[in-house]
Design brief:
5 strands; alpha+beta; 2 helices
């Protein structure tokens, strides 16, 4: 299952079941631009940084979610999400099921 299928079949339904985008004041921002990309010169930029999901409650960004293909390791997008959260000034906390590994 690729990343798009993982989003459609697992992440989107889980977010909805948790009330995101349903509960008043909650929003899901998809494909949220973090940075426009580093300037490389000659009018060119590197690839922009784009978060798969940013969760917002009452106009406060609370979380970044990075989707990956279903068969990738649980930690595959963790550094990427942590980087994006830092750039958005969102605090970072290891998920409970991963804490024992550190």
């Amino acid at each position: 299952m690729n990343e798009a299928e993982t989003r459609a079949e697992h992440i989107d339904p889980a977010l909805k079941a948790a009330g995101w985008g349903v509960v008043e004041g909650s929003r899901i921002l998809r494909e949220y631009p973090i940075t426009p990309g580093r300037i490389e010169g000659l009018g060119r930029r590197a690839k922009p940084l784009i978060a798969d999901y940013v969760l917002v409650y009452r106009n406060t960004k609370l979380a970044v979610i990075e989707a990956k293909a279903w068969d990738e390791a649980l930690t595959e997008g963790l550094a990427q999400a942590k980087n994006y959260a830092g750039k958005l000034a969102i605090g970072f906390q290891w998920p409970e099921h991963l804490r024992h590994r550190h």
